[in-house]
TrEMBL record, chain A:
Gene3D superfamilies (UniProt xref): 3.40.47.10
All residue ranges annotated as the Thiolase C-terminal domain in the record: 258-372
Region (Disordered): 354-378
Recorded GO MF terms: acetyl-CoA C-acyltransferase activity
Protein name: Thiolase family protein
UniProt feature, compositional bias: Low complexity: 361-372
Length: 394, 137
């Protein structure tokens, strides 16, 4: 079976862009990705498009050209972009197609996500009492994790500090000014233990990836960035999820609950035939600072509780043993849901190509020169218990 | 607090109308798994849950949630969002009262005590809530 390669990448900068719709930003990203791949829109055989709140992606054929191309819309919560990418790689692996795109974009109103109980099969009173609030869940999840595994609020602050510092060097990021650890820790609390710098914000942006069979990638003469694994999984029993009026009791509650992330991660490593120790750069869902901490363990990169030392030693910094969220992640880029997971893959391709500039990760095998990393990992998680993981190799 | 039996719950079937109310969960008739609230389905049998529990995790809601759907007071006061483990039954999410915002501790004993959604309105509906054990309901 052919490896699937990523031969073109495009991004519309994340943040707030007045006057441009979400779809506009998606079209911008597609055009940039096509140019990067050196292909024209009529050559594209299929597209999968992800958007949560900015309209149907397939309507962009109006703008790109009415070629009759197969274009399938994906709406899958925070895993929407990952699901689009998963679907695109399957289309190529099946042998049906050689060239296609995965595109994601979004544009959310300011403030917290507007969620209504009926959309989640919950009774109206759950929202009326003030519990239809995503930040409550994320804060309560890390609060228990901190107590169980000895994670300090200072470590949460270090995650946010790193995000803004890395984003200084990422042209597509939104918040590109460094913020000191002291300012992060002393900022107003939003939901304890998180201060305002420790949560990402809903935002806007667009990302597109051009996918090709290995044969097609060689024809195009592009460096072979191989998509070794793309998985999307849903939650196991007894998990603790956002918008949950109740959680199961379990006999032994001394370990973290199972998650969709653990399943998606283990399957991705199995498919790629490598382990967490082989990964040289990782983009992990960091909708809040503690998410990055917990996802380090859920994706197998460290044991529960080791994050305290990892962060203190700078092991997840650009120059560390495992750089995490090299473009500032969701904390610095914001979260346009449909685009967010594809942004992680975009960033990984930049890193694998060695095009990261001030945020470039040096590969482990690069003792004599400027060789970038050879492996890269991405992970998203979202309501109501979905996760998508990719592993890239060059 | 006024006698709970004279006040209206925010929804039917959330808690009992005893002098000291209890939450009503739903027991899956096949698996025995308990959830809250009790789903409107014949597959679940309503069961009155334990009044006593322990704090499993928590946070503090420090900003006023968006309306809709939030229907609480315009004048916002932060509250503790608690996940309370009712031993052997289920963990439920509800506000925790009678504890300082910085004084909540995982593992502390708490007791079910429905509370008004609008604390300053004597006619307010009651919502599921907990209080520190030992604080009169």
């Amino acid at each position: 079976m052919s490896d699937v390669c990523i031969v073109g990448i495009g991004i519309h900068p994340f943040g707030r862009t007045d006057g441009l719709s979400g779809l506009d930003q998606g079209v911008f990203a597609v055009r940039q990705a096509l140019a990067d791949a050196g292909v024209e829109w009529p050559q594209v055989q299929f597209a999968y498009g992800a958007s949560d709140a900015a309209g149907n992606p397939d309507t962009m054929v109006d703008r790109l050209g009415l070629t009759g191309v197969q274009f399938i819309n994906v709406r899958n919560g925070c895993a929407a972009g990952g699901s689009a990418l998963f679907s695109g790689q399957m289309a190529i692996k099946s042998g049906e197609f050689d060239l296609g795109i995965a595109v994601g974009f979004d544009k959310h109103p300011r403030g917290a996500f507007n969620a209504l109980p009926s959309e989640y099969n919950l009774p109206d009173w759950y929202g009326e009492v003030g519990q239809m609030v995503t930040t409550q869940f994320f804060a309560a999840k890390i609060m228990r994790y901190m107590q169980m595994f000895g994670i300090s609020q200072q470590t949460l602050g270090r995650v946010a500090e790193k995000a803004f510092r890395n984003a200084v060097h990422a042209p597509h990021a939104w918040r590109r000014q460094p913020v000191s650890l002291e300012e992060i820790l002393e900022a107003p609390l939003v939901s304890d233990p998180y201060t305002k710098y420790m949560f990402c914000s809903p935002a806007e942006g667009g990302v597109a990836l051009v996918l090709a069979s290995e044969k097609k990638a060689r024809e195009l003469g592009k460096p072979l960035i191989r998509l070794k694994a793309a998985t999307m999984r849903t939650r196991p029993p007894h998990s603790f999820e956002v918008f949950a009026p109740s959680i199961d009791v379990v006999e032994d509650d001394s370990a973290p609950r199972g998650t969709a992330s653990r399943i998606a991660s283990a399957d991705a490593f199995r498919l790629a035939g490598i382990g967490p120790g082989d990964i040289e750069v990782a983009q992990l869902q960091d909708t809040e600072a503690g998410a990055e901490i917990m996802h380090m363990a859920e994706n197998g990169f460290c044991a529960d509780g080791e994050q305290e030392q990892w962060l203190a030693e700078g092991r997840t910094e650009i120059g560390g043993a495992l750089p995490v969220n090299t473009d500032g992640g969701c904390l610095a880029c914001g979260e346009p849901i449909g685009a967010s997971g594809l942004r992680q893959v975009y960033e990984n391709v930049v890193q694998l190509r060695g095009d990261g500039g001030g945020r470039q990760v040096q590969g482990r095998g690069s003792s004599h020169g400027s060789s970038g990393p050879k492996t890269a990992y991405s992970h998203v998680y979202g309501a109501p218990g979905v996760s998508a993981v990719t592993i890239l190799e060059r | 607090m006024p006698d709970g039996s004279e006040m209206r719950a925010i929804a039917e079937g959330l808690f009992t109308d005893e002098a000291e109310p209890r939450l009503i969960g739903g027991r899956d008739r096949e698996t025995g798994r308990i959830v809250f609230p009790c789903p409107p389905s014949a597959a679940y049998e309503p069961v009155a849950l334990s009044r006593e529990g322990t704090l499993w995790s928590y946070t503090v809601q420090r900003y006023r949630p968006k309306s809709p759907p939030y229907a609480g007071p315009e004048a916002f006061r932060p509250w503790i969002v608690a996940y309370v483990e009712l031993p052997g039954e289920v963990i439920v999410e509800a506000p925790l009262h009678g504890v300082g915002l910085d004084d909540a501790r995982i593992g502390m004993p708490v007791r079910f005590a429905p509370a008004p959604l609008h604390p300053d309105d004597p006619e307010s509906v009651l919502i599921p809530a907990f209080a520190a054990a030992g604080v009169p309901a």
